[in-house]
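Researcher: I'm preparing a figure for a lab meeting and need a structural model of a single chain. I don't have an experimental structure, so a prediction will have to do for now. The sequence is pasted below. Please return the structure as tokens so I can convert it later.
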Amino acid sequence: MSASWQIERAAASDASTILDIQYQAYRQEAMLYGGVTLPPLLETADELKAVMKTHVVLKGLVDGVIAGSVRGREADGTCSIGRLVVAPDYQGRGLGSALLAAIEAAFAHIHRFELFTGHKSARNLGLYTRRGYTEFRRQREDDAVTLVFLEKLS
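Model: Understood. Here is the structure written out token by token.
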């Protein structure tokens, strides 16, 4: 990636920008599944601000501009990672990998990480596999979407 990036903890004031990126990224995902409405497309700024009180939410900045985000939360010895998003203009340049590594580092004391993506999300599945995640179950949501759950043990 030619631009420089940094990753830091997101603040409540970042919620609207993070949601804009989330909406862009998940609209692309929704198209893989016939245009279904995915839950991340319905999240509000107030809901995200509430999540920021219970989760670690990181933002990825490219040349000082928020270009991605990820969130994680520890429960029962597992860090659940969610909503790893990168703005479409910055995808495929390493920011997603950097965000994933950063959220894992934020929970360095945890020995199990878990996340999920849709079965048609080849780019996501490739990223997670390259980062050491393996599939451990699938859950059919409806006729269009099957969730693939992956874990990483350290």
